[in-house]
Design brief:
TIM Barrel, 34% helix, lyase, globular, Amidohydrolase family protein, alpha/beta, 286 residues, ACMSD, eight-stranded parallel β-sheet, Metal_Hydrolase, carboxy-lyase activity, single chain
Length: 286
């Protein structure tokens, strides 16, 4: 079973000029041109399940999404998609939108980007979000790591604050996206020590040297065989086939050298990772 744990969805009318202005900084090869429901269904043809979410990042990267688009995609492709809600704690109706997304739209988790919304994980405005998620057995995927958006405060992308929140809310399942790049060591040590914290490798394969070092570091801290690391693409920033091949071929750049290898078992664990067994207490039936 191949599960993509990180897929972005937005319609063309939710993209502002800021997105086009900055998107070239994200990846030299460029991004897929669309991320609507039908595009995602085609792109995820080789994936058994995909976790999808909208982005409320209008002022940082120029995508102004909403949960209705996510829910409509799940309704159209129920065998393929599981939807998460988007949270922006700056919005005065943040909790109303969250409750609506979970209780009316039936979304199954939350996505939040502290660096994109300019809100630290330690900000008091997030406390009711954490409490609601913990009470209702809902996981929180967080963008952890840097980004290209000029208006995004870089410091909020660092993973260390996850350690604080994990201790305050021990029953809240938290997932650090992108292994906290380039602060992957912080991500790995937090995931190792906190049983309710996980991480994932989306949008890393196109920086292969960094990706290689991330996985070797994860092995050295012994988190690669404990259902701590999950696979994803971050579409439209990366596609399925290249993300799979980038992981499978990670050792090609060190062939003929004495450098350590990413173990076949590490690669297999990540490719066969199943968030639905681990991100919800008791699992999630899909």
């Amino acid at each position: 079973m191949l599960v993509d744990c990180h897929v972005n969805i937005y319609n063309d009318d939710q993209v502002t000029p800021l997105y086009a202005k900055q998107a070239g900084l994200a990846r030299a090869a460029g991004l897929a041109p669309k991320a609507d429901a039908d595009t995602l269904a085609r792109e995820m043809a080789d994936v058994d399940k995909a976790i999808i979410f909208s982005l409320r990042y209008a002022d940082s990267i120029g995508v102004d999404g909403n949960d209705e688009v996510t829910a409509a995609a799940v309704a159209k492709y129920p065998d393929k998609f599981v939807g998460f809600a988007a949270v922006d704690p700056r919005m005065p109706n943040c909790m109303d939108l969250l409750v609506h997304a979970i209780e009316d739209l039936k979304l199954k988790g939350v996505k939040f980007g502290p660096i994109y919304n300019g809100v630290s994980l330690l900000d008091p405005r997030l406390e009711p979000v954490y409490e609601y998620l913990q009470k209702n057995n809902l996981p929180l995927t967080m963008h952890m790591g840097t980004t290209y958006g000029r208006n995004a405060p870089v410091n909020y992308g660092r993973p260390l604050d996850v350690d604080t929140i994990a201790l305050r809310y021990p029953d809240l399942k938290m997932i650090m996206a992108h292994m906290g790049h380039p602060w992957y060591e912080e991500c790995i040590v937090v995931a190792r020590k906190q049983p309710n914290v996980y991480c994932e490798v989306s949008a890393l394969h196109y920086r292969p040297w960094q990706f290689y070092n991330i996985l070797v570091c994860a092995q050295e801290y012994t988190i690669t065989d404990r259902n701590k690391i999950f696979w994803g693409t971050d579409f439209p920033f990366a596609r399925v086939a290249e993300s799979v091949e980038g992981l499978k071929n990670i050792n090609s750049q060190v062939e003929g050298t004495p450098l350590p290898r990413v173990a076949d078992t590490t690669i297999d664990y990540i490719l066969n990772s199943n968030p639905f067994e681990h991100w919800w207490h008791g699992g999630l039936a899909v």
